[in-house]
């Protein structure tokens, strides 16, 4: 199929390259000329494992990029909308969705062939029908479901594993207004026949499935952190042992032929310094706000947010348990992204913790394998001290705080031992065996 995708952010670019790799011809569209030129040179604007290799493989060979939306739509049969839907503090901002819909409507007015519009952006229930469909109808004069196709196809891509998630999906959700649209969207994924469940629903249900999925996993993280905070106040109770006891419940990890089957959701039942990223914080806030508009008090969603907002404070409390003042304290922060294998620092607990440390007068040294360039957009050079490796941070720090579980950080015990240092280590991700250090503090650990 010939496919155009509006937006070359995380979802748009990954989806475009993956669709190309399964045989479709894809044209991505973005109004940012600098970004388009960068992608044309084979350089992705984001870091994602294997993304650069995929771009270099398909650029000019089934994958193209342009700033010209009209040209892209004229050369395609299906257009995916993958623009941003930020939370403005009170509600979801759908202005990008509306503006794109206006442009598409004007273009479709002069296109003879049937064209299908598919929303991939995360939007509140009703948006595809009431905003996208009606706006395109207004500016094109065409009827949705009859003269142009309309559907909603949410993405379930985890940063760091996005290409794998797209190529080996556990499910595909297709919302649509009519059978023709449903079948056309289904054709996009016709190669996923053997292992994938495809769920066909209406557009509002597809929109709600995305929010429900992200809110559920965010809730698991906040639940784990709340249990962790209780364990912190108990003598000789390690939250990791408590959670292991939970995992072994057969309703969570069933025994099949005497073998324990541990589902992926267990990875979200692990305490830490909080969740971040572009999806969980925004989507839970949006769904809670949307619920308020429906006069529903979404108390679980609000509690999920509250626990997460307060969780970074636990790290500061652990520092204060060893130092009465953090002014002029040299704090080494390992990990700036909200999770490993990405350069995404949006809503990262690290950024919140660093901001508080700077306000309190600490001297902050940092290292992250991928995020220095992004962090420089938040903290001007000089506010914090960036290092090129972990060893350098360890050599100058009074306290080491581990806030992202990058695999290379597993070498921290060895580095400290080689340097003959008894530096306090605060494990914000419970990566380490507490006995690996002479001075150790961990989330949910009170030895």
- At the fold tier of CATH, the topology name of the largest domain is Rossmann fold
Strand order in the largest sheet: 3-2-1-4-5-6-7-8
Overall structural class, as computed from helix and strand content, comes to alpha/beta
Low-confidence stretches: none
| Overall geometric form | globular
Query: What is the share of helical residues?
Result: 40-55%
CATH architecture label name of the largest domain: 3-Layer(aba) Sandwich
Task: Considering the chains and any ligands shown, give keywords for the structure.
six-stranded parallel β-sheet; eight-stranded mixed β-sheet; 2 domains; 447 residues; alpha/beta; globular; 17 helices; Rossmann fold
Walk me through the structure.
- The strands form four sheets. Strands 3-2-1-4-5-6-7-8 form an eight-stranded mixed beta sheet, with helices on both faces. Strands 14-13-12-15-16-17 form a six-stranded parallel beta sheet, with helices on both faces. A two-stranded antiparallel ribbon has the order 9-18.
- Helix 1 (10-21) crosses helix 3 (51-58), helix 5 packs parallel to helix 6 (127-140) and helix 13 (312-320) crosses helix 14.
- The protein is built from 17 helices and 18 strands.
- It folds into two domains: 2-201, NAD(P)-binding Rossmann-like Domain (Rossmann fold); 205-447, NAD(P)-binding Rossmann-like Domain (Rossmann fold, 3-Layer(aba) Sandwich).
- With 447 residues, it is an alpha/beta fold.
In brief, what are we looking at here?
The protein contains 17 helices and 18 strands.
Describe the secondary structure blueprint for this structure.
Elements: E1 2-6, H1 10-21, E2 25-29, H2 33-40, H3 51-58, E3 63-66, H4 69-74, E4 78-81, H5 95-108, E5 116-119, H6 127-140, E6 149-152, H7 162-167, E7 171-176, H8 179-188, E8 197-201, H9 203-232, E9 237-238, H10 239-247, E10 255-256, E11 259-260, H11 280-293, H12 299-310, H13 312-320, E12 330-334, H14 349-359, E13 363-367, H15 372-375, E14 385-386, H16 390-396, E15 399-402, H17 412-418, E16 424-427, E17 440-442, E18 445-446
Helix pairs in contact: 1-3, 5-6, 9-11, 9-12, 11-12, 13-14
């Amino acid at each position: 199929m010939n496919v155009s995708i509006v937006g070359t952010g995380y979802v748009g670019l990954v989806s475009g390259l993956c669709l190309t790799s399964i045989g479709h011809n894809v044209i991505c569209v973005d109004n940012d000329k600098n970004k388009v030129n960068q992608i044309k040179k084979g350089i992705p604007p984001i870091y994602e494992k294997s993304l650069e290799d995929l771009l270099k493989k398909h650029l000019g060979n089934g994958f193209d990029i342009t700033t010209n939306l009209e040209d892209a739509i004229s050369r395609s049969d299906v257009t995916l909308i993958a623009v941003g839907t930020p939370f403005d503090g009170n509600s979801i901002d759908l202005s990008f969705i509306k503006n794109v819909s206006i442009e598409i409507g004007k273009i479709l007015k002069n296109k003879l062939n049937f064209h299908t519009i598919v929303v991939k952006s995360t939007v509140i229930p009703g948006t595809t029908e009431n905003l996208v469909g009606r706006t395109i109808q207004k500016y094109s004069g065409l009827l949705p479901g009859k003269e142009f196709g309309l559907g909603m196809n949410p993405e379930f891509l985890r940063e760091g594993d996005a290409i794998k998630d797209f190529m080996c999906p556990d499910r595909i959700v297709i919302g649509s207004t009519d059978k023709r649209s449903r079948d056309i969207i289904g054709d996009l994924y016709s190669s996923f026949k053997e292992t994938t469940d495809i769920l066909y629903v209406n557009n509002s249900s597809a929109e709600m499935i995305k929010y429900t999925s992200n809110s559920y996993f965010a809730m698991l993280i906040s639940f784990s952190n709340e249990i962790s905070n209780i364990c912190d106040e108990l003598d000789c109770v390690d939250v990791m042992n408590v959670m292991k006891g939970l995992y072994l419940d057969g309703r969570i990890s069933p025994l099949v032929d005497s073998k324990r089957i541990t589902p992926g959701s267990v990875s979200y039942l692990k305490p830490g310094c909080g969740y971040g990223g572009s999806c969980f914080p925004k989507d839970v806030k949006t769904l809670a706000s949307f619920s308020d508009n429906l006069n529903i008090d979404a108390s679980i969603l609000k509690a999920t947010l509250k626990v997460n907002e307060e969780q970074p404070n636990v790290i500061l409390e652990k520092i204060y348990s060893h130092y009465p003042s953090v002014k002029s304290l040299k704090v080494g922060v390992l990990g700036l992204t909200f999770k490993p294998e990405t350069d995404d620092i949006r809503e990262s607990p690290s950024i919140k913790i660093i901001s508080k440390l700077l306000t309190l007068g600490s001297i902050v040294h940092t290292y992250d394998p991928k995020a220095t360039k992004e962090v420089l957009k938040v903290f001007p050079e000089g506010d914090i001290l960036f290092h090129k490796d972990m060893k350098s941070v360890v050599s100058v720090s009074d306290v080491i705080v581990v806030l992202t579980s990058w695999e290379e950080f597993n070498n921290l015990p060895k580095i400290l031992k080689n340097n003959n240092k008894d530096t306090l280590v605060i494990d914000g991700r419970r990566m380490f065996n507490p006995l690996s250090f002479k001075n150790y503090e961990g989330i949910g650990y009170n030895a």
